[in-house]
């Protein structure tokens, strides 16, 4: 964030405490469709389009606002847009005396995390003493200060809900008490009220050690192995059996740390099989009692994935160490002590739990104020120790000259837990102690590719973001003799690089190969650091007329025949001349041949507040460039007064010769075309126009632009938008500030200078954009 305080100075004569409220599923339920108990409807205009939502108020919301406004400064901090929020609050607070306009923060004030946007609320930007701030949100993990959160479940429309009345009582008691810290007051709040805490209250002030079970402590064996033990459990009316191999040091870790830590198992596995396993590890339940065994049903669903919310434990997160394999499986990765995935094949060399035991002992003996500082220091120390030069692949065989790296699902197979039409085979594999079945359909040309390319001097590598068990089972079907894809050439999710925002990246530099001789084949090449090595293929969705692998074979033959010195140049030429890049999903037609010959890049422009400022009210100074009349959905005529951003005409005329220019706006077609026809009356500037119907709709309403669907090479796409929250590919954004009516604005001159400089560059524009953004001092969150 930019460091600017979002609220005005506090009126200390009124209150020293601040109450920060979310809206959706905290105070109200919102739906486009009628609700069983609709209290009100909200209508508002959004970019020329009339939106209508049905709203059910949570019981107690009116009493909360009326009673607490006298003793608290009340702030609304929401992921919603301004138009909707203000329209809703007009019903809840029509006089704006409880929640004035200065105390309303919208999604622009959130911090975004990609690839799928998650909007994080940083209470530090309020400019308030956080020891006196109460945060109320059904998703407290979407804040950096979840320890300030009063525990409140999501409101789904239940008119018997009593949560807000409990909140009123708590806020009144805190305001009347002598307590200096709201976090202590929340931590001491009766657990019988905080019914979403997963652990019982404890009087002993131990640290808390939270352990994942599968992958971190044990490995599941399909058959008996040395040192494994048998676990039987009932599930769905049948007895199931699995064999478990314990990680070296597990028994010693549990025995030695029990005196220092409260030990909790929090696993994504089902209760049935995890309980049976825990009873084998701790039959007396002295180390991990029943109350400290938490299973799949207590996980939080996020974007279709199950994750663990440590806030639900009811413990001070400054005293919680979380042990798991993957940061993305928790909403608090800053509490993670990663141990790496345990495999029974590496049992003799695994020292992870011994290292964990030493670390946990040293932390406990230091009596830390916050264990997260020790965890961060441990990560830095491990990074320094790790030898980053050890290649993943063994030395290349003498008769091999190039490397072909293949992804798996979506690239050369289609897989699904449901039967696929005409599927080729099924695979059964274990994951997290559960048995899974997947149906697999091979992409046309796969057998030919695996048989032909090794003869041409290619070593074949599979690099997938899927779990190892799935990868091994699929490749056992495709190459049972391991003649084409050796076991040393198979990599899975554990070999990927995981970023802090839980994005899984494939780093080809780790392979230990000359990247000028590596061809990478993935339907999502942007999840690699080396997208310039990616041969363009679209996702395989079962079309048996698909020709992508045949095109790949022909390309690889040509590269081998002419002994190319750098395959990246060949891939670039192929991509520029091909009209099939993501053809199935492309929103744009193929680039013109003249543009391809000139090696033009694509410049994607937003409209409102980027190129122009628009208002449906006549400006007080009566200064505007032109007006457009639109027939609204209500069949009424509306006039919009348009003010062009300074230098917009110069920018368009200068760059139309150098770039393919595309407008991508969240506005409706009629509204946008009326403005664009004024900016480009001859139709010679904007090659393509994309409107709201081409956006991805998220709750809010919020319309997000996905540049990957343009059908263009993203290493050659520059996107210009005043709000970086509106698109998935932040790394492609040129940063410009929002334009309202500042006629001294010079943002577009900076854009012209940058675009001219990189127009003929052969490098990835995303690296140029990053360098530019870091050199600027723009005052919004995306570039600091």
UniProtKB/TrEMBL annotation:
Keywords linked to the UniProt accession:
Hydrolase
| Enzyme Commission number | 3.1.3.16
Catalyzed reactions per annotation: O-phospho-L-seryl-[protein] + H2O = L-seryl-[protein] + phosphate
Q: Which SMART domains match?
A: CPDc
Give the FCP1 homology domain ranges. Answer: 12-174, 202-363, 397-559, 596-758
Site Transition state stabilizer: list residues: 665, 705
Q: Does the keyword Cell membrane feature in the UniProt annotation?
A: no
- Tell me which InterPro entries the record gives: Dullard_phosphatase, FCP1_dom, HAD-like_sf, HAD_sf, RNA_Pol_CTD_Phosphatase, TIM50
Instruction: Please name the GO terms that the record assigns under molecular function.
Output: RNA polymerase II CTD heptapeptide repeat phosphatase activity
Q: Report which residue ranges the record marks as coiled coil.
A: none
Q: Does the keyword Hydrolase apply?
A: yes
Highest taxon, organism lineage: Eukaryota
Q: Where is the active site?
A: 606 (4-aspartylphosphate intermediate), 608 (proton donor)
Check the record and name the PANTHER family matching this protein. Answer: DULLARD PROTEIN PHOSPHATASE (PTHR12210)
Q: What is this protein called?
A: protein-serine/threonine phosphatase
- List the lineage, top down: Eukaryota, Viridiplantae, Streptophyta, Embryophyta, Tracheophyta
